[in-house]
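hey so i finally got around to running the thing on that chain from the lab meeting. sorry it took forever, my laptop kept dying and i had to restart like 3 times. anyway pasting the input first so we r on the same page abt which one it is
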Amino acid sequence: MAEGVLADIVGAAFTALEQSSLGAAARGSAWLYPLANMSHVLGAALLVGAIVTFDIQLLRRANNIGIIARAVTPVAACGLALQVASGTVLLAADAMPVVVNPVFQFKMAMFALGLINVAVFRWRFGGGLKAQIPLEGATWPAALSLVSWLLVLLAGRFIAYV
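ok and heres what got predicted. didnt touch it at all, straight out
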């Protein structure tokens, strides 16, 4: 029962997004959808590029991981902001067919896993990053991060083909 109610609420929300003025603009404008698409690619490059840079350095146990974290965090945050903003525009253009696409659902699950992993990592190792001390036990979160964010990228490219 609750599952059906939740599905109805989610369906109504995405229908409303698709029928909104943003959805109409994304479908009707000659420049909005292509601009959002380019912004989404740029956001992905910034977000995943920064994360991969950090994770690889973490896996190789770089001594200056705190400095690396301070350098890549603003880049990743900018990429995330671009991804969310542009992704909303892209989704608004054709929300209902996209939201039921299993590849899109997988992408969103990996996106959520990646964000949760970042939050848990910061909670567990944030003090060590600031103190510039070795981060014992951080290799698993780094490996999980690499896998989840690369799967977000791959799934995003594959959505159009399913």
